[in-house]
């Protein structure tokens, strides 16, 4: 039996992503006007705060990096119609693993600590996603609810650790002691905070592209388009479901590693906000294509940083970014071809 | 036995928002639409009711406004998932991001801080005097009685009315339903509007009834807990009610256990979610009467 799996680069999702962004932008302008904010001032503040200088450009980059990381590994599972919304929890698990490794190896060299942290975060994030993956594969447990449940479980666990055994002596705040300098990621562009995590995330893009042309990629497409047929072609759906979701979690774990080791240098319970869910948006807006993810990640990274600047520059609460993201996704999802 | 009394009382109070939202979710899932946007609809109701009371509309008007705002949120879901034939799960997820974001934005931007006046308890004579559990079940605020009445009505609708049959028919086989002159699109639209209104009431029951204020992210994942409740309840009204009560008890334990035990308060936050995962595993082993077109 010859199985032909159609594979074309479909331009329609790209147009859909662009239209969604434009329509959402128009609605946001309306909302700004309704609450009495000059949209032009807001736009000016966002533009200047993001592209005003090399430093601010770097700030956009460091927000884009974990988004790219999450979306790249989330792509394969989304293509198969598995909605893993557990990135915040998996990111938190990765951040926790990084913190534990770094704090326990205070005197080791950077060459040891940095890769060890990354591996630990990769495994911890993957393990956090492995549970919902296994439950989905074997007991058809709805992965949307179970991955979300894992988010709350991880947050509760972090809250416990950071108010108890892991709390820093420095202040009575829910945060860990600062990590040793040896765990920091090397900087990429001098004068900014952009770090080599960006290269790690970008490295996944050619891997994904190559995977598309490999046997695994072929089986993946077969599984994504028709699980029943895939099963007859001895592509075991249980294995694929489990490992696809786990892979997405492992990437989110790496994103947690980047947040803690490169940006914050200490762990706190809200480490995953707001990038946790935004990773899913990046994957969707990038039309589920690795290269699309790169573009969408830089767009959203700039948006996240610009949104935070709005508060200082134009007196707009940063929650507006969440509204904007929600609008984009709503318009993007409300079209017949988004159906699967 | 003071502790049991307190826990029973807050269990019932915290059950009410879940029960109201669960009724809505049963309706929408029986019609074949997995409504992931429930969290957003509950937020719409919680925030609208709070704002209405703060601006002096009075509680009855606030409850109505909450239901209407929930219904409007439901209409977004209907437009995206049913009329535009979009991806229901992603549309729902968009509402989960969009509506709490909008409510938080307006809440912060308008610098609202006022608390809402506590709702009076309505006590049933004699029954509310039963020791230990009497007050919990027979002396609660208005939302509790509203939830009980609506539960009976929705149960009756599925058990005895044509409307209930039509909803289930669309959920099981829309094509066949169409051949006998039912429009699946209209039925699912109605189901989502009703679901939104119920979720809006549930949100109001949380902000006005249980908390007495609005705080950002007040729903805190309860929308997803309700989805799990409906799955565990095998898409029946009584199953959903039992699940809502179970989760109400867990919520109450989460609040009250730290007073009598040494379990760290932060770890208790994970308790309802661990039970949710166990519930979903357990429900996969039960006899399945899932609406056949439902994507779970």
Compute the gyration radius of chain B: what is it? 19 Å
Q: Which class do the helix and strand fractions of chain B yield?
A: mainly alpha
Shape descriptor of chain A: globular
The average pLDDT score of chain B comes to 89
Helix content of chain A: over 70%
Strand content of chain B: under 5%
Protein described:
The complex is a heterodimer of chains A (340) and B (296). With 340 residues, chain A is mainly alpha-helical. Chain A has one domain (13-29, 38-338): ABC transporter involved in vitamin B12 uptake, BtuC, CATH 1.10.3470. Chain A contains 13 helices and no strands. The longest helix of chain B is centred in the first third of the chain and has 29 residues, at 2-30. A two-stranded antiparallel sheet of chain B has the order 1-2. Chain B starts with a helix and ends in a 12-residue tail after the last helix. The chains are: A mainly alpha (340), B mainly alpha (296). At the A-B interface, α5, α6, α11 and α13 of A face α3, α4, α10, α12 and α13 of B.
Topology:
The complex is a heterodimer of chains A (340) and B (296).
Chain A: H1 12-34, H2 39-51, H3 54-79, H4 87-104, H5 110-139, H6 143-162, H7 197-212, H8 215-225, H9 227-232, H10 237-264, H11 275-285, H12 290-314, H13 320-333
Chain B: H1 2-30, H2 38-54, H3 59-83, H4 88-109, E1 121-123, H5 134-138, E2 139-141, H6 142-160, H7 162-172, H8 174-179, H9 184-211, H10 222-232, H11 237-260, H12 265-268, H13 271-284
Antiparallel strand pairs in B: 1-2
């Amino acid at each position: 039996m010859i199985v032909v799996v159609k594979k074309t680069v479909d331009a329609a999702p790209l147009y859909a992503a662009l239209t969604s962004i434009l329509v959402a932008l128009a609605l946001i302008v309306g909302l700004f006007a309704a609450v009495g904010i000059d949209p032009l001032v807001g736009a000016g503040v966002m533009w200047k705060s993001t592209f005003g200088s090399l430093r601010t450009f770097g700030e956009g980059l460091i927000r884009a990096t974990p988004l790219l990381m999450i979306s790249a590994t989330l792509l394969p599972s989304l293509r198969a119609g598995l909605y893993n919304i557990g990135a915040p929890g998996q990111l938190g698990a990765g951040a926790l693993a990084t913190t534990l490794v770094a704090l326990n190896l205070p005197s080791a060299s950077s060459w040891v600590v940095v890769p060890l942290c990354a591996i630990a975060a990769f495994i911890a994030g993957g393990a956090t996603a492995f549970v919902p993956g296994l439950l989905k594969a074997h007991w058809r447990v709805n992965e949307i609810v179970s991955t979300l449940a894992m988010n709350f479980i991880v947050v509760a666990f972090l809250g416990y650790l950071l108010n108890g055994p892991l709390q820093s002596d420095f202040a009575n705040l829910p945060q860990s002691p600062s990590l040793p300098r040896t765990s920091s990621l090397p900087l990429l562009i001098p004068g900014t905070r952009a770090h080599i995590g960006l290269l790690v995330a970008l490295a996944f893009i050619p891997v994904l592209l190559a995977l598309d042309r490999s046997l695994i990629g072929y089986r993946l497409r077969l599984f994504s388009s028709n699980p029943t047929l895939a099963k007859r072609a001895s592509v075991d759906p249980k294995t694929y479901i489990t490992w696809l979701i786990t892979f997405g979690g492992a990437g989110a774990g790496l994103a947690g590693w980047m947040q803690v080791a490169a940006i914050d240098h200490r762990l706190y319970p809200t480490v995953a906000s707001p990038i946790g869910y935004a990773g899913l948006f990046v994957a969707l807006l990038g039309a589920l294509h690795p290269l699309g993810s790169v573009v969408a990640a830089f767009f959203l990274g700039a948006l996240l940083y610009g949104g935070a600047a709005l508060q200082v520059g134009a007196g707009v609460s940063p929650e507006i970014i969440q509204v904007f993201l929600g609008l984009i996704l709503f318009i993007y999802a409300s079209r017949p071809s988004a159906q699967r | 036995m003071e502790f049991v009394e307190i826990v029973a009382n807050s269990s019932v109070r915290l059950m009410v928002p879940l029960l109201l939202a669960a009724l809505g979710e049963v309706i929408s899932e029986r019609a074949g639409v997995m409504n992931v946007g429930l969290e957003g609809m509950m937020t719409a109701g919680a925030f609208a009711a709070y704002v209405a009371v703060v601006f002096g509309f009075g509680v009855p008007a606030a409850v109505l406004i909450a239901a209407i705002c929930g219904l409007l949120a439901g209409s977004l879901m209907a437009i995206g998932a049913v009329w535009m034939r979009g991806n229901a799960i992603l549309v729902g997820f968009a509402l989960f991001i969009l509506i709490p974001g909008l409510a938080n934005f307006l809440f912060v931007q308008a610098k609202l801080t006022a608390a809402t006046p506590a709702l009076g308890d309505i006590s049933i004579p004699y029954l509310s005097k039963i020791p230990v559990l009497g007050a919990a079940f027979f002396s609660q605020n208005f939302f509790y009685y509203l939830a009980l009445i609506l539960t009976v009505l929705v149960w009756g609708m599925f058990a005895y009315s044509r409307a209930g049959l039509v909803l289930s028919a669309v959920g099981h086989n829309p094509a066949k339903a169409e051949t006998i002159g039912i429009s699946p699109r209209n039925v699912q639209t109605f189901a989502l509007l009703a679901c939104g209104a119920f979720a809006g009431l549930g949100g109001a029951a949380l902000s006005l009834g249980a908390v007495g204020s609005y705080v950002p992210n007040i729903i805190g994942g309860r929308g997803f807990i309700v989805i799990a409740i409906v799955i565990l309840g095998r898409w029946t009204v009584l199953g959903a009610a039992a699940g809502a009560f179970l989760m109400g008890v867990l919520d109450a334990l989460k609040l009250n256990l730290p007073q009598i035990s040494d379990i760290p308060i932060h770890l208790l936050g994970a308790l309802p979610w661990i039970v949710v995962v166990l519930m979903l595993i357990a429900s996969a082993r039960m006899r399945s009467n899932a609406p056949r077109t439902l994507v779970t």
